Amino acid sequence: MPLMKLQKDNAQSGWALWFITESEEELQQASGEIIDSTIASYPKRLEWLAGRALLKELVENCGLNFYGLEKNEFGKPSLHKHPHHISLSHSYPYVAAQIDLKTEVGIDLEQPKTKLLNIAPRILATTELEDAGQDILKHCVYWCAKEALYKSYGKRGLHFADHLYVKPFNLARMGDLHGTIDINGFTRELPLHYRIQPDYVLVCTKI
Question: 137-151, pLDDT tens digit by residue?
Fold first, then answer.
C-alpha cells in the first residue's frame, strides 16, 4: 500500500498522503467502496477510490471503523456515523486527506504549473500578488492555502480574492501560514501548514 505519509496530531486528528500505483480493483478492495458509476475518467476513478482508502486508513488510526462518506447540501464530505471533520484533495497520482474531531479542516494538494500565473489575478488579493511575483511555487502555496480555507468553510459564495486572505510569507521547504476567512460579517482566522516537494505542494489546516 503506497501510503507515503501519515501524521497524527493527536489521537483523533491527523493527515495523510497516498501515491496511487494500484489498479482500480486493488483500490476498490482497499477502500471497501463501490465506485461511483458516473465517473468515466480512469484517473478520476482511481482518485475517488484512493481517497476513500486513505480516509479509511485515517479513521482506523483513530481507533474507529470506516462506514463510508456522506455529503451535505453544499457538497462537503463527512464521515458516516462519526462526528469528525474531514477534507480530501486529489492531484493524480497523489491523494491527500485530513481528519479532526473538533475543528473544521481543509487540505489541498497541487502540482505547480504555469497556469497558476494566468489565474492569479482572479484568486489573489493585491498584496498577495505582489508577494508571489512570478514565483510559481509561491503561487502554488497561495492557491493551495486558499483551497484549504475554502474547504474548511464548507459553504458556497466565497470569492478567493475577496473573502480568503493569506498573509505574505517567506518561502521555505515547509512552514506555517496565517489564513483568514472574511465574508458577510463572518470572520475566522486559521493557522495553516505547507510542505513543498519536487512535484507537489501540500497545504492543510494546522491543528
Answer: 999 999 999 999 999
